[in-house]
Design brief:
Elements: E1 3-7, E2 11-18, E3 32-38, H1 40-50, E4 54-58, E5 60-62, H2 65-76, E6 85-87, E7 94-100, E8 106-111, H3 119-123, E9 132-136, H4 142-153, E10 158-163, E11 179-182, H5 184-189, H6 195-203, E12 210-214, E13 220-223, E14 227-230, H7 244-257, H8 262-277
Parallel strand pairs: 1-4, 1-9, 2-7, 5-6, 9-10, 10-11, 11-12
Antiparallel strand pairs: 2-3, 7-8, 12-13, 13-14
Length: 286
């Protein structure tokens, strides 16, 4: 199986489900509450491990109970966490999430006081023989250095980049990446009203990359010689959209790593993400 490294965040998610999202200054009672391991990096690693890949996660958390819980859970499902950094001070990143039963949508308040990953963290791993390295784009000057180092050391590896939000100097990362996944929120932040215009603009900087833009209920758009569209897979009921983007990324990486064509990989990713939003959490997804 392909050897995959995921570079991204891990969090403790505190999820409260409500009948419908409350208005400002309104008090409502949660119908369900749970704590689960989350974060883009951890979620993507979880799904890829479940799909049978050899997955190493590069992330960081604090030396507190939340960090220990993340470590236990990921290790228990087969994710290699030996290279994750445990920070002595601060608190493990936490996301307080309100999940609307009426729509399946989620609203997130994120708390973080830890540093970001650095090039030194990546250099502690032997990446010379890995097949795929996936980066969650973060607000850090180290991101470009890490991507550049990965391209130089693991020359044969495929490199993918997830761009969920606007980041400083993000364009400098595009030419290094073989697959780039943009979110609809990023497209809107850049002033684009549709995926086509964003992808054609990015093509100037990344002429050889697989370019993807997810568009919520409309599915996803990809750019090869021209734009193609894969519709969303809609489950009988939208239950929980939390982590759907991470599941999409994992499905895309899994399919491309197994040799699928780009359109087929996009279709599989949409299908898996659709399966995810039709269930609570990740239980039974695979």
């Amino acid at each position: 199986m392909p050897k995959i490294i995921i570079v991204g965040a891990s969090t403790l998610d505190i999820v409260s489900e409500v009948t419908q999202y409350p208005a400002e200054d309104q008090e409502v009672r949660a119908t369900r509450r749970e704590e689960r391991v989350g974060g883009n990096g951890a979620n993507t690693a979880r799904v890829l491990a479940g799909l049978g890949h050899e997955v190493t996660l590069l992330s960081l958390w604090s030396r507190d109970e939340a960090g220990r819980r993340i470590a236990r859970e990921l290790e228990g499902i087969g994710v290699d966490i030996r290279h994750c950094r445990e920070v002595a001070s601060g608190s493990t990143p936490t996301s307080h999430i309100v999940l609307s039963r009426a729509t399946g949508s989620r609203t997130i308040v994120h708390s973080r006081d830890l540093p970001e990953l650095e090039l030194d963290d990546l250099e502690r791993i032997d990446i010379s023989d890995v097949d795929w390295i996936h980066f969650e784009a973060r607000e850090s000057p180290e991101m470009l250095r890490m991507l550049t180092a990965a391209r130089g050391i693991a020359g044969a590896a495929k490199i993918s980049l997830e761009i969920e939000k606007e980041r400083t100097s993000i364009e400098t990362m595009w030419p290094i990446s073989g697959t780039i996944v943009f979110s609809r929120a990023f497209a809107h932040a850049r002033g684009f009203e549709n995926a086509d215009d964003l992808l054609y603009r990015v093509r100037r900087s990344a002429p050889e990359a697989n370019l993807v833009c997810t568009w919520g209920e409309q599915g996803a758009f990809g750019l090869e010689d021209e734009i193609f569209h894969v519709p969303a897979f809609v489950p009988p009921k939208v239950v929980d959209t939390l982590g759907a983007g991470d599941v999409f990324n994992a499905g895309l990486i899994d399919a491309l790593a197994r040799g699928a064509t780009f359109p087929d990989a996009l279709s599989r990713a949409c299908r898996l993400a659709g399966e995810k939003v039709g269930r609570q959490g990740f239980e039974g997804l695979l």
